[in-house]
Amino acid sequence: MESSPSTPAERRSLNAHLYHVSKTPDDLRHLILDISRAAKYISYAIQTTEAGLAGTTNQFGEDQVKLDVLSDRIIEDHLRESRLVASFACEERPEVVDLDPKAPYSVAFDPLDGSSLVDVNFAIGSIFGIYKGKSVLGRKPKEQVAALYVLYGPRTILVYSTGKGVHEFLLNDVGEFILLREYLGVADDAKNFSPGNLRGVDETKGYRDVVETSLTAKLTLRYSGCLVADVHHIFSKGQGLFTFPGSAKYPTGKLRLAFECGPFAYLAEQAGAAASDGNGHILDLTIESVDQRCPLIIGSRNDVKKVCGMLNA
Ligand code: AHG
Ligand code: MN
Ligand code: MN
């Protein structure tokens, strides 16, 4: 049930929710609030920065748009100022970046997900996975203590979990994230389908069967090309299936474990959904490197199971 953001009496702030509902430890609560402040600056930058290329490429050889670089910088500044982050791993840096060795947390983030869509004015996002400890390397996504994403669309939405359910917030007119919906859940059967990497439909055994089965089942196609938007669609509608298997160009998948698949796998499990690399749970994979990729099948449990069966038939 959406609370009307205009009635102050019912307004539930992100801070109050982290404290009262999720009973989040104070330092983790403050880190999440610092991240949410960075998201406000990114939301504003998306509205005001020209959409052009930065003229540089990241470690993956992908052209960086100005907003990739700016978002990365904004988030680093907020993590550094928090004094709560020992190191971070992010898409725009080839190595883990050390901040404060005495700090309790490490963060994996994708500063701007779907950035190739900035010029077409599609919704784009930021993704964060938070671990207790000095580095995300060597960890498994199931060890995260929090995961959150921000979706910069017609409205700016923040969705978080610290292990007590998945909760959705709206950035209101005075710049505060206020509660929209609590305990988002995902049904076991999908009616929507979000098929990524269709270029590789005949390069991954079984993927064409997956796509044709979805057509026969008359699933509704919902695919934007932004992972945050496409998976938020599943959390928001309470059902759905997103697939991004490997292919010739991306033998181990295109999406990165540390800052794309890992945080979403944590949120999926909290929402009663599933996230697999086609063979096993994403939550159980070990993060060996910042640029490690993996296939992603995420969403309604029964459909994730079915697709994994077809990809391994
Ligand atoms: P990023 O913009 O952070 O590099 O992520 C883009 C990813 C993800 O958002 C999306 O699911 C996928 O790329 C789409 O890939 P294609 O454009 O190859 O379909
Ligand atoms: Mn990105
Ligand atoms: Mn991304």
Task: Describe the structure in brief.
The protein contains seven helices and 15 strands. By secondary structure, it is of the alpha+beta class.
Task: Report on this structure.
Strand 8 and strand 9 form a beta hairpin. By secondary structure, this protein is an alpha+beta fold. It folds into 2 domains: 173 residues, Fructose-1,6-Bisphosphatase, subunit A, domain 1 (Fructose-1,6-Bisphosphatase, Chain A, domain 1, 2-Layer Sandwich), CATH 3.30.540.10; 120 residues, D-Maltodextrin-Binding Protein, domain 2. Helix 2 runs antiparallel to helix 3. The N and C termini lie far apart (41 Å). The protein is built from 7 helices and 15 strands. The radius of gyration is 18 Å and the shape is globular. The structure holds 2,5-anhydro-1,6-di-O-phosphono-D-glucitol and manganese (II) ion (2 copies). The site of one manganese (II) ion has 4 residues, from strand 5.
User: Bound small molecules, which ones?
Assistant: 2,5-anhydro-1,6-di-O-phosphono-D-glucitol, manganese (II) ion
**Mean of all residue-level pLDDT scores:** 94
Q: By helix and strand content, what is the structural category? A: alpha+beta
Corresponding CATH architecture of the largest domain: 2-Layer Sandwich
Number of domains: 2
CATH H level, superfamily name of the largest domain: Fructose-1,6-Bisphosphatase, subunit A, domain 1
Share of helix among residues?
25-40%
Q: What is the terminal-to-terminal distance?
A: 41 Å
Low-pLDDT parts are none
Order of adjacent strands in the largest pleated sheet: 4-3-5-6-7-8-9-10
Broad shape:
globular
Proportion of strand residues: 15-25%
Largest sheet: 8 strands, mixed
By CATH, the topology of the largest domain is Fructose-1,6-Bisphosphatase, Chain A, domain 1
- Write down how many β-strands occur, each being a DSSP E stretch of 2 or more residues: 15
The number of helical elements comes to: 7
Radius of gyration: 18 Å
